[in-house]
Sequence to fold (299 residues):
Amino acid sequence: MAKQAKSKPAKSKPAKSKDGRRHGAGRGGTDRSPSPAALGQPPADKASVGQARSGQVRSGQVRSGQVRSGQARSDQAVAANAGRPAQASGEPGKRTRARKVDADTRRQAILDAALSVFAEHGFEAARLDEVAARAGVAKGTLYLYFQHKEALFEELIRGAVAPVIDTLSTVAANPSVPPVAVLEAFFGMFEQQVLGTRRKLLLRLIIAEGPRFPAIAEFYYREVVSRGIKLMRGVAERAAASGEFASDAPARFPQLIVAPLLVSVLWDGMFSEIDPLDVGGLLRAHRELLCGKPQGSTS
Fold:
């Protein structure tokens, strides 16, 4: 009988993972089995893993808080060394004042530019685009301060001429100041603060544009002329009552007192290059006419 071949037991090969590596007992009997995660199996204990991760996050937050706390203490120390307490957001008071100064500066720049543009082109031909360009601001910024051209022109009048009337009113309201002294103060202020400055451009503009734009003339009369006439009438009445004026005519017609001032403005604009006018001498002569005697005379 033929001998039957002995069958050899098949050797079991270690299982391979997805990456092709064999797992199983290694040399020395060391277990090289992959972790459940490597075999695609869920972790043995999800709760423990989550707790570990949560602990790591909390630990990181604590360390971050310590860093921020240290930075805060450092900032406070720097501020203390500078002689002032630490502040979280700077000094609001200074920022507010700075913004107000900037706004006032822009507003005045617009008014200065407007006076030049109005004087050069007249009221009707003046354009707010040019005013904004000369002031160095956007046209939209100009409208934040003045809604239209009329409002801008009216503010020019208030800011340029009205303060002179306000100052003179304060002087005239003092009963201890003689009427002639008030008159001299008025003439001196007009010569220095109107004829001697760019304010005279505004008066020329009123004279030139008033007949064509009644609203402008009305506003100027209300804000400046009527107040000045009332003031001069009161001074003339006091001067006539005390004998300082030779006649009561200036009290009846206060326009007589301011007439040389308008002549000075017109002369300066039209004839100053041809025949300059001695404005101071003109006003002294006018005072002599009102008083009926030379200035400085006691007789």
